[in-house]
Design a protein that fits this description.
With 252 residues, this protein is of the alpha/beta class. 44% of the residues lie in helices and 20% in strands. It is built from eleven helices and seven strands. It has a seven-stranded mixed β-sheet with strand order 3-2-1-4-5-7-6, sandwiched between helices. It is globular and about 50 Å long.
């Protein structure tokens, strides 16, 4: 049952809130540089990194693993065109993604490790802070490898110190091990300092929007978001001792 999955109920509530709240949209724009209903670490700098690693525009087929309400995918489509696909276990998220009937889009309710796509369907697959939801990251990485076309690219934002324990370095992460076992070749960008700076901005933004959250009776969301930034109230040296972020750009 989806209800037994990690954070399922919380994300159903989150996307229902995100669909209605003006102050949350304003907070996202202030904290991340654009409102994509973010819940995590993906600011515009990282999303623009995705664009920088897409080899060409045109008739591309792009999949977003855990796409939420599809705002990021639709932004990418506006920049480069192509066909966009996304799945998420949140029915509220997918309902919102489908609501404007974007051309050449396919949004569906699905669970990591259970949903299937035909082999060699995608030129580009994106996972921004969603690989942690796989019951078996190694098996899911192999599934992603099969979904990619020859010379396809898998782009992932991956955090340690939150849902995943911090390891010795980028090559010892569970994701790096899974990618190697699946046959991927990859480069890694250490994005820890940029993430620390983003969390600092995020904390300033949520504090600035406190009154707006209260007016919309969203105090619990305000508190949750504020707590999400608590790791960045220390120095970067202290933060990086227990947290790390890596961007993986993996090729088939």
């Amino acid at each position: 049952m989806k209800e037994d999955l990690l954070f399922y109920d919380a994300y159903e509530q989150f996307y229902a809130m995100a669909e209605q709240s003006k102050c949350f949209a304003g907070f996202c724009a202030c904290a991340y540089g654009a409102d994509f209903s973010q819940d995590g670490f993906s600011d515009m700098r990282q999303i623009d990194l995705i664009l920088a690693h897409i080899p060409h525009a045109g008739d591309l087929h792009i999949l977003d693993v855990g796409c939420g309400n599809g705002k990021m995918l639709k932004y990418l489509k506006r920049q480069i065109g192509g066909h966009i696909y996304g799945f998420d276990y949140s029915e509220n998220a997918i309902r919102a993604a489908q609501s404007d009937q974007t051309a050449n889009s396919d949004f569906t309710v699905g669970i990591i490790g259970e949903i299937e796509y035909p082999p060699t369907t995608f030129d580009y697959i994106i996972s921004m802070d969603t690989m942690y939801f796989a019951k078996d990251m190694h098996s899911f990485a192999a599934q992603l490898y099969g979904w990619l076309k020859k010379d396809g690219i898998f782009f992932a934002g991956y955090q340690e110190g939150d849902m995943m324990a911090k390891t010795a370095g980028s090559e010892t992460t569970v994701l790096a091990q899974a990618l190697r076992e699946s046959g991927f070749q990859y480069d890694i960008i250490d994005y820890t300092k940029q993430t620390y700076d983003m969390l600092t901005r995020k904390r300033s933004a949520i504090l600035a929007f406190e009154d707006d959250f209260i007016k919309e009776n969203l105090q619990s969301w305000y508190t949750m978001i504020l707590n999400q930034t608590s790791s960045a109230v220390v120095s970067f040296e202290e933060y990086s001792a227990s947290n790390a972020r890596y961007i993986f750009v993996a090729g088939k």
